[in-house]
Amino acid sequence: MTQTFTVLTEENPNIDEVKLMLSMIGVNIPDSISNDFIIPNITSDSEGKKQFKGVWTLEVDDLIITIKLFKGKTSSVDYMLFKEDVDLTTGNAAEALVILESTKTSDNASRNTAVYQRITKFTTFDTMYPDFKGKKVMFWCNSIWKDKLTQTAMVGMRLMETLNINMYSLNKGNLINIKEKYEITAYECRDDIIESKNAIPEKKGNCSIRLNRLDNDIYISLKLDKGNGKSSGVISHDPNVGFLAAIINAFEKVTKKPNHNNYIIKNHNIKQKYFDKCPKSKLWYSINDINIVFEECVIKKRPVLPSQYFTLESDMTEKLATILYDYVSPNETIFSNHGGCALTCIKGHDDTILSVGQKMPRPDIVFRNDEHKEIEIIEGKLEKELGKGIKQLSNTHLEKFVGQLNKLYPDYTIKKGLCITINSVDCIDKYKNLEFPVKFAIDNEGFFIHLSQDQ
User: Fold this and answer.
1) What topology is assigned to 3-179 in CATH?
2) Per-residue pLDDT reduced to its tens digit, 255-273
3) What is the DSSP annotation of 188-239?
4) Tens digit of each residue's pLDDT (9 = 90 or more) over 82-103
5) Could you tell me the pTM of the whole model?
6) Residue 140 near residue 101, CB atoms below 8 Å
7) Domain ranges for the chain
8) Which is it for strands 63-72 and 310-312: parallel, antiparallel or unpaired?
């Protein structure tokens, strides 16, 4: 009997996440199945024009999985798994079988980013769907973990376990159950949480998070803004926001009495004018109507929860264009940064990799052609932003990134091109004299042309 499911994702569809979600409901995909089996549904009209509507299919024996892109209405997880017959046009995620958040960042690279910054995705989901019966999964894909966790990561993972989040990592094809590997246990009471967090030594020069309790009043001291300029005085410190959302929801879970606790936030560094504007921070969607006070500030109004968790991606976007070009190109992809998707490392020969700094200007895709010894840097843009794309391909803008490529491929020629989303591919000739050539184009109806092949 054929089993059919639908996977929604905001990412470039990846087989590892799909395999893990299905395994959570007892459906196993063989290890031999790779990303090559995820096929975009490409059709042709009577004139032979190719068309893509943003849907992929994965077929394995008696299993058919349809994969579609979605756009979150708030801070959403990366993947959701549904039965095939669920109506997804409503944007209601309550009937998901599995939700999954994926990252490559491990405890080794960044304790806060790897753990706390991710929890907000789940606490937001829990607030919108408190009666959710499916599985929640945190997945560290292709990440390396040491034999012993840092204290920061251990606290974060105990919070995840308390909030019923399954934790797995993948390293060189080996799936690891994080709970079992590190013997993660859930918190049992409020004082257990407080003692565990406060046991982490304060670092000199840091504003460490500290907790204490007086009856049902829980005091949380933590900084919630970061840096100067626009980030100063406003809730903008994502890892600390994630921690606050997680810790409050964990306190609520172990107390087992809704709104029994009062949370007083100290040393937060947030200005009153921030609270005057009813800002839509990730934090508010994670704590909703829970009792919370910010010292020396008055919360004028809280934003209401969105009526939908997601919408299906129906427009031809820059992200969809670069993902499709990534698939149809015959050259090897050695780097990708599809809009809103996970940032990859730059691949060299023999599994050599170079990481790309979060603030380093970078293109959307980089291809390698070993036959001609060429590296092709691609910038994806909507038609109205072509000028910006050309500017971003300039040597000055990508100088540091190109320097990284030259380290890995000193004897390769570097070329540059554009991947664009336009009104109609029938009008592509008007862009034939740009400073950088258009290599791939898709229009609003999903018709596309691969100029790398056709020219």
Assistant:
1) Restriction Endonuclease (3.40.91)
2) 988 889 999 999 999 999 9
3) -SHHHHHHHHHTSPPPTTS---EEEEETTEEEEE-----SSGGGTTSS--HH
4) 998 899 999 999 999 999 999 8
5) 0.90
6) no
7) 3-179, 190-294, 315-454
8) antiparallel
